[in-house]
Specification:
The protein is an alpha/beta fold and 154 residues long. Strands 1-7-6-2-5-4-3 form a seven-stranded mixed β-sheet, with helices on one face.
Length: 154
């Protein structure tokens, strides 16, 4: 597990860019953290590393935004999902096992339908410091992600 502290949205985006630079087709990044902790900022960094120039917004109402590049990005926000089974109605498995990188905000809400090999990113605010600080932990779980932590340059 990798632990990082950031002190601005730009630094959180930079962490996403570093993570995005090591991702491959079929990788799944699960983001957890309260509202306003920086999940979308981190996703912006991942998108930038994949060559996406669009400004990334959270797909809260559409559930998924697709960004077409050499390695597509499928950005999910499952905050409004009331039952994980709803994900199958939008073709979730095709995204999950497709040719792109999948980023899922609020992934803990659908944990039961996710594969075992995942990249879990937890973002939390460090309120004790008195500064707008984020604590980011990145956990590469499963055989698929062996060696990723060594390639992550922060």
């Amino acid at each position: 597990m990798k632990q990082i502290k950031t002190y601005s949205a730009d630094e959180t985006t930079q962490v996403g860019r570093a993570l995005g630079s090591i991702l491959n087709r079929g990788d799944v990044v699960c983001l957890t953290g309260d509202l306003g902790t920086g999940k979308t900022a981190l996703t912006n960094g991942i998108a930038s590393a994949l060559g996406i120039e669009d400004y990334i917004t959270s797909p809260t109402f559409t559930i998924v935004n697709e960004y077409k590049t050499e390695v597509p990005l499928y950005h999910f926000d499952v905050y409004r999902i009331s039952d994980p089974e709803e994900m199958y109605d939008i073709g979730f498995e095709e995204y999950l096992y497709g040719e792109g990188v999948v980023v899922i905000e609020w992934a803990e809400l659908i944990k039961g339908i996710l594969p075992d090999d995942l990249i879990w990113v937890k973002i939390s605010k460090d309120l004790a410091s008195g500064v707008d600080t984020r604590e980011i932990s990145i956990d590469f779980q499963g055989e698929k992600y062996e060696g990723y932590i060594d390639r992550l340059k922060l």
